[in-house]
Amino acid sequence: MIAKEILLTNWHVMRWLRLGMGLYATTVAFQMHDPLSGIIAAIFLFQAITNTGCCGANGCAVPTSTKKNLDKIEEVEFEELKAK
Asked: Of 46, 38, 39, 42, whose CA–CA distance to 15 is shortest?
């Protein structure tokens, strides 16, 4: 169920771009019989399918949930320091 959710949700511009680059590199790899292009294509397609980026699972992405502990007001203590 989680794999289906990862695959079908949160498609943004960078994910579409990775998919397009992966498909393009796949066609180049088959046309030119180039294994390096095939490896690059596999990397881009893996990133597009799993929604990972350069730093692992959403390492470079902005967090989608911005409401965390906004209702809690935390008391801050200050200590005054005097210079000699």
From this structure: 46
